[in-house]
Design brief:
Oligomer: single chain
Radius of gyration: 13 Å
Shape: globular
Number of strands: 6
Number of helices: 3
Distance between the termini: 24 Å
Number of domains: 1
Length: about 100
């Protein structure tokens, strides 16, 4: 996978959440699963593997890492606001979901 493209593998449902950088910044190692609706598992970073994105991963819904604006920051949890304040990025889904 190319730089700025990462997958998060869920240990519960065994599915992948694909993420893409829109902006430069830091992303977490663990993420709440977003690959399967209703899954409560934690997904672990695949550590930005090198090489082309496999077709089956490229076809998955696209989640984007970005720098949120001040208004979006107001609606974030304390943990996410701290993450962003330290150079971290926020995550949005294919339909704008967080």
């Amino acid at each position: 996978m190319s730089s700025g493209v990462n997958g998060y593998h869920c240990g519960t449902c065994r599915k992948i959440t694909m993420t893409y950088h829109v902006d430069e910044g830091v992303t977490p190692f663990y993420l709440r699963c977003r690959a399967t609706e209703g899954c409560t598992g934690d997904a672990m970073s695949m550590m930005y593997p090198e090489g082309p994105i496999p077709d089956e991963f490229a076809a998955l819904p696209r989640w984007e890492w970005y720098i949120p604006d001040a208004e979006e920051m107001k609606g974030m949890s304390d943990a996410w606001r701290e993450h962003v304040a330290r150079g971290g990025l926020a995550l949005r889904g294919p339909n704008g979901e967080k």
